[in-house]
Each structure stands twice: as C-alpha cells, then as structure tokens.
Amino acid sequence: MAYFAPTALNDALSLLASEDVSIIAGGSDVFPARGQAPMQNSLLDVTRIEGLAGLQWGPNGLRIGAATRWSEIIKADLPDCYAGLQAAARTIGSVQIQNSGTIAGNICNASPAADGMPPLITLGATVEITGPDGVRRMPVDEFVTGPRQTHLRAGELVTAIHVPPLPGYTRGAFEKLGSRSYLVISITMVAVVIGCDATGRIDFARVAVGACSPVAKQLTGLEADLIGKMPQQIQISTDHLAPLAPITDIRADAGYRLDAVAEQIKRAVGKAAISNG
User: Fold this and answer.
1) What is the CATH number of the domain that holds 250?
2) Does residue 229 lie in a domain region?
3) Rounded CA gap, 240 and 261, in Å?
4) Per the domain annotation, does 78 fall within a domain?
5) What is the reported pLDDT for 129?
6) How far is CA 24 from CA 66, 106, 121, 175, 271, in A?
7) Hey, is 247 helix, strand or coil?
8) Could you say which of 150, 152, 158, 250 is the most buried, measured as most Cβ atoms within 10 Å of its Cβ?
9) Closest to 264 measured CA to CA, from 225, 236, 244, 238
10) Is residue 28 helix, strand or coil?
C-alpha cells in the first residue's frame, strides 16, 4: 500500500482515477473500523489540499471546507443558528478526535449515529462534490443513502459543505443521549433550529433526529405543527415520530429510543426558544 497526501485538488482527482485508494480526512473512523486487519488499499489523505479547510462567508452563506476539523468549528465565531452544530462538535470523541476528525469525514463515513448530520440537516446544508465530470451539489440528507452508503460516484470526493443564510433571530440546539457524557456513540440525538416572533410563538422550526433510523431524519410534520405554538406547550405525538425506525441493540431498545427522542425534542426546542427570547 502507499500513502498519498496531495496539496492540489487536480492531483487528488488524478490519483482517484489511477490508483485503488481509500480517502481519509483525519482517519478517526477508517483506522478503528479495520480492527486488526491490515490495510488493503492505499490511502489518499485529502487534509492538505488547498481550499479544502476553513470557513468562508459569501453572499450565499457559509462554505465549510471538507477537511475543516471539528475543533475549528467549535472555536469559530458563528451566528446563533449554528449553536447546534457547535454543540454537536463538542460531543464528538475527545479533544484529540476533534483536532483530527473532519466534517466531511463524519458525513462520508455515513454512520446512522454521525453527530454532524442532524444539525447540518436543520441548517439546510448541501454537499459539494467534485469529480471527473465537474462539481455538483445535493442536500446533505440526500447525500447519505444508508449505513456506510453515500451518493459518491467513482472518482469523486466531497470538497465542501454549504449552508445558506438563515433568519438572524434563529438559534440552534443539540441534545445527545449516550451511556456516558463523553467518548460515546449516540443512543439518540436531536438537533433543532428555532425562531420565535415578538409574542414568543414559534415561527421558524427545523427538527432532525439521528441514531433512530438508517439515516438521520428531518421531521417535517412536527416542524409544521410547531409553527404558532408556544415552546412550553408543544406535544410530540407518535405521528410526529413516524418517519423514524429505531432498532433494538445493546445500547437501547426501540421503544426507549422513541421516548428519549420525544423528550430531547422538547428540551432542544425549549433551549433554542429561550435563547430567542
């Protein structure tokens, strides 16, 4: 096997076309996943490619380079609507993992429990994909198609995440449930972006849930029902949670996950709405 660390995007695309490589962007998922087995493919490290790291504001919102590390997101001066994404970043592994793990690596690993997915969905994020046919984009929730499965085609890699402008009065929040406070895979997690009008009623709502279905899910029915409600009056019904498909495993059973998600939504909405007030 070989290790490639190009600094130019065109060089990386050429290597993807000519070599049998596995892309790494921090390596915090790739190396633990192989266990004791030796690496079979060569490695293409994309973290040194010019333009693939950092946060840049433009007229169409925020561009987050694919190789941007979680610690950079935690430390960034971002609007309140990003509070959920920054809270999620602080729960990802240890400080060492946050210093190496990247936002695109978290998405491309396509774990049902990827902490970055729910907040990115609530932010309306899109994934920028570059390959031999040029650049294309798609919503982040469409990019991940199932456990360890994405819409990446042969010869492509993720180059950025784009977040459009959101109303300035909105705020995000994130709730994560695990068997302990740190260094844990999520049992359930919820991200929201909430805005309230002058009377304190919700007039902007996005809600997404992770670790309760093969891919993170946006609860559009619940979002619609939250509009016009006071945060403390919201009720979560089984219909609201119908898009979810939690499993029973060693960490929790399906019924417990649904009960936990309902409570997490109330907490996250309350936290974001209080900040709005």
Assistant:
1) 3.30.390.50
2) yes
3) 11
4) no
5) 98
6) 11, 11, 23, 28, 35
7) coil
8) 158
9) 236
10) coil
Question: Per the structure block, which two tokens stand in for 199?
Answer: 């009377």
Q: Tell me: the pLDDT tens digits for 15-41?
A: 999 999 999 998 877 766 666 777 778
For strand 3-4 and strand 42-45, is the pairing parallel, antiparallel, or unpaired?
parallel
**pTM beyond 0.85, yes or no:** yes
Contacts of residue 202, Cβ cutoff 8 Å, sequence gap at least 6: 194, 195, 196, 226, 227, 228, 229, 230, 231, 269, 273
- What CA dihedral angle connects 35, 41, 45 and 51, to 10 degrees? -130
Instruction: Judge contact between 49 and 67, C-beta under 8 A.
Output: yes
Q: Residue 35: count other Cβ atoms within 10 Å of its Cβ.
A: 6
Which tokens belong to 207? Answer: 């809600």
Q: Using CA atoms of 249, 251, 252, 257 in order, give the dihedral in degrees to the nearest 10.
A: -110
Q: Are 61 and 39 in contact (CB under 8 A)?
A: no
Range of the domain at 204: 171-276
Residue type, 240: H
Query: What would the two tokens of residue 159 be?
Result: 């180059």
Q: In percent, how much of the chain has pLDDT > 70?
A: 95
- Return the number of other C-beta atoms located less than 10 Å from residue 54's C-beta: 14
